[in-house]
Design brief:
By secondary structure, the chain is of the alpha+beta class. The chain has 2 domains: 2-189, Bira Bifunctional Protein, Domain 2 (BirA Bifunctional Protein, domain 2, 2-Layer Sandwich), CATH 3.30.930; 197-240, SH3 type barrels (Roll). Helix content is 26%, strand content 34%. The protein has 5 helices and 12 strands. It has helices spanning 12-22, 72-88, 147-151, 157-176, 180-189; strands at 2-9, 29-36, 55-62, 94-97, 101-104, 107-119, 122-131, 197-202, 207-215, 221-225, 230-233, 238-240. The strands form 2 sheets. A 7-stranded mixed sheet has the order 1-2-3-7-6-5-4, with helices on both faces. The protein has a 5-stranded antiparallel sheet with strand order 11-10-9-8-12, with no helix packed on it. A hairpin with a 4-residue loop joins strand 8 and strand 9 (207-215). It is globular, with a radius of gyration of 18 Å. The relative contact order is 0.15. The chain binds biotin (BTN). Biotin is lined by residues 11-13, 36, 39-42, 45, 47, 56-58, 101, 111-113, 128-130. Pfam families: BPL_LplA_LipB (PF03099). One of its GO terms (molecular function) is biotin--[biotin carboxyl-carrier protein] ligase activity. Residues 1-176 form the BPL/LPL catalytic domain. Its EC number is 6.3.4.15.
Length: 242
């Protein structure tokens, strides 16, 4: 495992992506930084973080050595690895808000940005993780919190990084061994608001009710609607409100 520590960079995902094209790179090459000037989130959003307070890193994983039929399994494995690391640190009520936000006590404490790339015709992936660790103020972000805000404890960023990498390797091994269902079942068991009456907003802005019952292997959210019909939604089609 190679760890590249940077003081500041635009985005660790972008840095690692550039690196892939310029040199040979091995699994679990990690880029971690104190500060990002252009941190990127899902669906074109930005990821802001106060300098030196939080964990921001990206790791490289070659997917060609074991065929992962459905990329969403990587996303599930990474979410579970983070969850396991946080549970071991006694962070309370951790869950996965579909598809891959990590919550504690209903607040977002971690975001994941997975970007698949093709290098020399081999599929590989860049797994970017941002965890709010020791930052205590979140201006204009009422849904965000940090580990320190939740527990009052100041955490060592390196220790959390190493725990997450260790668990990511273990969940990757499960996929490598074909234990797809084990990963999917564990992911679904840890889904935020699973089997609870919930309200959603569709792409047209209309609200509707239903129960999250699981996900498909393609990563769509399965919702049981009031008329007993199960519908599948992708990320652009649905927002979980409460
Ligand atoms: C999200 O919740 O929208 C995903 C946020 C992902 C943020 C991390 S921070 C490290 C890595 N580099 C980036 O530019 N983004 C990811």
């Amino acid at each position: 495992m190679r760890i590249i520590k940077l003081d500041a960079i635009d985005s660790t995902n972008s840095f690692l992506k550039e690196m892939i094209y310029s040199e040979a790179i091995t699994d679990y090459t990690i880029v971690v930084t104190e500060h990002q000037t252009n941190g990127r989130g899902q669906m074109g959003t930005t990821w802001d973080s106060k300098r030196g307070k939080n964990l921001m890193f990206s790791m490289f994983k070659d997917l060609s050595i074991h065929v992962v039929e459905f990329p969403f399994y990587i996303s599930m494995a990474v979410s579970l690895a983070i969850l396991k690391a946080l549970k071991a640190l006694n962070i309370p009520q951790v869950s996965i808000k579909w598809p891959n936000d990590i919550l504690s006590a209903d607040k977002k404490i971690c975001g994941i940005l997975i970007e698949n790339v093709i290098k020399n015709k081999l599929n590989s992936t860049i797994i970017g993780i941002g965890i709010n660790v020791n930052q205590t103020e979140f201006d204009n972000l009422p849904q965000a919190s940090s580990l320190k805000n939740i527990t009052g404890v100041h955490y060592n960023l390196d220790e959390i990084l190493h725990r997450i990498v260790k668990h990511t390797k273990a969940y990757s091994k499960l996929l490598q061994d074909g234990k797809y269902n084990a990963v999917k079942n564990e992911y679904e068991a840890n889904l935020f608001r699973k089997n609870k009456p919930s309200t959603f907003r569709n792409a047209e802005g209309d609200l509707f009710s239903g129960f999250i019952i699981g996900v498909t292997k393609y990563g769509k959210l399965q919702v049981l609607l009031e008329d007993e019909i199960v519908k599948k939604f992708d990320l652009k089609e649905i927002t979980l409100m409460y």
